[in-house]
Specification:
The protein is of the alpha/beta class and 265 residues long. The protein is 33% helix and 22% strand.
Length: 265
């Protein structure tokens, strides 16, 4: 069994507790207007071209091999077996143990490759590695049931509480996502909710009040984070020949105001 991965990043500190290795699965069933990893969206291999790195050597035109001496062309997406992923993860097991870290499976949407993911989780669990699954939640609940026994922490996004707004900027309504989140919270699973704060989309105080009400009704997550919008992925869109919508960057003051509403506990 093999899965399509576009990056395995070591020594991560923002994708769960401690020092972690983050495995990025390729393919996503959402299309967030602010996505900072556009190379994660397609479920197929892609070529990324960085024009500013090109030295005009012409080697890419004269060989069938994917070789670029300047790094201007990059193949995004590589097939891995379960054991190949595990081999990468266990390299830093000592760092996980000393820092309270582990492995995080992200994307794209890692749960779209649920059978491949499940087999990796089982192997990591046998190796005593803390497991975090980062998901947007637009997945059948039966898939959550398959992996809950092997998952120590879920990272879960709330992008908008209004379904029409969600569909406009993400491509789908939010009903399934919120239903799955409610089920996770009621199951007492460890869940860290993350809200990307996008000006003009979900940065109103009323939006945070709706999120707080949702937690009051369905249970509180282990933690909640507000993630300010940034533009660090714009060059990736250019490399893929795609355009992207731009938003304002929220001020630190605005983030603090929103935090006081939705993170009172």
């Amino acid at each position: 069994m093999k899965g399509l991965i576009f990056n395995i990043q070591r020594f991560c500190i923002h994708d769960g507790p401690g020092i972690r290795t983050t495995v990025f699965f390729k393919g996503c069933n959402l299309s967030c207007a602010w996505c900072h990893n556009p190379e994660s969206q397609s479920p197929y291999k892609e070529t990324m071209f960085y024009e500013d790195k090109c030295i005009g050597c012409g080697r890419c035109k004269n060989t069938s091999d994917f070789i670029c001496p300047s790094g201007a062309r990059e193949l995004c997406g590589k097939e891995y077996s379960v054991n190949e992923v595990l081999a990468e993860v266990v390299k830093d097991k000592s760092f996980y143990e000393n820092s309270g870290g582990g492995v995080t499976f992200s994307g794209g949407e890692c749960m779209l490759q649920i059978d491949f993911l499940l087999e990796i989780l089982k192997k990591c669990k046998k190796n005593g590695i803390h497991i975090t699954v980062d998901t947007a939640g637009h997945i059948p609940w039966t898939d959550f049931e398959k992996i809950m026994l092997y998952t120590d922490l879920f990272l879960y996004d709330i992008k908008s509480m209004d379904s029409n707004t969600h569909k406009k900027y993400v491509g789908v309504g939010n009903e399934l996502i919120l239903d799955n989140l409610a089920r996770l919270l009621k199951s007492k699973a460890a869940v860290r909710v993350r809200v990307p704060v996008i000006p003009s989309v979900n940065d109103a105080e009323e939006e945070m009040q709706k999120i707080k009400l949702f937690f009051d009704e369905n249970g509180h997550p282990t933690e909640i984070e507000l993630l300010p919008y940034h533009r660090m992925g714009e060059h990736k869109y250019e490399s893929l020949g795609k355009s992207t919508q731009k938003f304002d960057i929220p001020s630190k003051e605005k983030i603090e105001i929103l935090k006081h509403i939705v993170v009172p506990y």
